[in-house]
Amino acid sequence: MTILDLQLNQLTGSIPPSIFNITAMRIITLFKNNVAGNLPTTICENLPNLEVLHIPVNNLDGVIPPNLGMCRKLQILSLSGNKFTGTIPRELANLKDLTELYLGYQHLQGEIPVELGNLKKLRLLGLSNNEFTGRLPSDFGRGVPSLEEFSCRSNNLSGSISASISNSSRLRTLYLSYNSFTGEIPAELGNLKNLQYLDLTVNEFTSSVPASIFNISALRTLGLGVNRLSGTLPSDLGRKMPSLEELLCGGNDLSGFMSATISNSSRLRKLGLTHNRFTGPILESLGNLEYLEFVLGGEYFFQRFNIELPNSFDKL
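^ that's the sequence the OP posted. Answer follows.
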């Protein structure tokens, strides 16, 4: 047997250890069952050909076996949505063919191993909703040139974000929200020309938003809300962001006028500005955004400006 596919069932109990002794096995997928127990500490001693281990959304617990680093042909490792505890084994960095690693939505702790930043073939890395602490590796990005998606939101990470992350030039998704990152947002993020989703909400970033971020033409979602950002938004906001659908920057200390050029982001659906220090009138040009579902300003926003909505809003 080379493929074991039992996903989307209601299987219970533990995974029989004998499954991990089938040396010809290439793919094991048990996605979304109710299997429980630990993974064996010797899991990869007899799986020299394993390429996919896909067992998310179950009730597995215990630690992630360091022995997984012996499955040298592994390309996809997905353990998300279980109850694993402990730390990420550094031995996973031995998986040089790994392209997808999913460890989110469980109870993992400790720091993110520096060694993960050397997986040159890694495209997708999901570490969200755990209890990781410490900083992102200072040179993260240099060793993962193929990285396209990195999700690490809802942890306890802190410190600054290194400019080296811009070396992952293929990055399309970067989710770092709900942590405790500090310092300035790296201007080098503006070099990520393929970036479509950037979410930095609910952190402690300070200073102004780098102008370079507003030059990423592929960007669809930009989340900057609930930080300590100050300064103004660019006077040509929207002109270089034709794909933008969501701009969320409420809960900061931003000021100045909103530019009428925001209407150049003609696909905009959500605009969040509440709890800042913007001044001036509500823009008539917002009424030209035919896809706009709502402006997150609320009663607070309109009372502060003490101004009626423009007639153009009747079109929305």
